[in-house]
Every structure is written in C-alpha cells, then in structure tokens.
Amino acid sequence: MDEQGDYQLIATEHTLARKEPPAPDPGATPFKLVVDPEMRAKLRRALFELIDFHDEALAEHFADGKLALESYKEYIELFARSLKETMESREGVSYLLRAVGFEVRPEEINLQPELRWKEGVPGAFGSNLV
Length: 130
Description:
Number of helices: 5
Mean pLDDT: 78
Radius of gyration: 21 Å
Number of strands: 0
Largest sheet: none
Low-confidence stretches: none
Structural class: mainly alpha
Helix content: 40-55%
Order of helices and strands: HHHHH
Strand content: under 5%
Shape: globular
C-alpha cells in the first residue's frame, strides 16, 4: 500500500526559500507567548548575548584602567548591577522584545508590569525566585 503520511521530507534548498512568519502580536494572549518554545529559545539567546556584552564591557573597562576591582565578589556585584540597570530600562526591555520579533515603541513598554498570581497559588518571583 502506498499511503500519504502526516509529514513529508523536503530537500534543503526548499527550506532556505521559506519566508519568515509575520511578527507575532506582542499584545496577544500571554499564555501563548510564555510557553512558545521558539520564542523562549530566542529570549534565552538574547539574554546570553546581553550577558556576554556586559561581561566583555566590564572586562574591557578594567583592562583599560577605567574600572577598579578589588575582588571577584565585587566584579559579580558590578556585573549584577549592570544587568539589573539594563533590564530596568526601556532600552533593555526593547532589546529583548526585538530579539524575539516584537517591535514595540519605547513609550509603550511597561517597566512595572503587575504580577497577577491566581488566587490560592503562591507566586515565587523576583528575589524569591533563586
């Protein structure tokens, strides 16, 4: 019997011509955005790139004699501060939004989103997360 399957293998040159899907709506239903594995992978990649950028910038400032460090502890404290300040800024959030395909005007970015935990479900977030 010759039956059609649920999927079909295609040659590599056909996959290269595939168009990117349209950018998702950043205001769409949140549960789709949170669990979307492709979006989460892009977000992780953007965070790793941001971490690398901060690490390289701090190391360069130290090597150029612009930054004084007395210990690894102090380096980690400065590194955390640098990341925190970036993530609390419209530029930092905008960078992450663009990395996953959203174009949102800076004035539309909510830097203080409300945590709406479901009633009866304890929420661990922020400093309690680690």
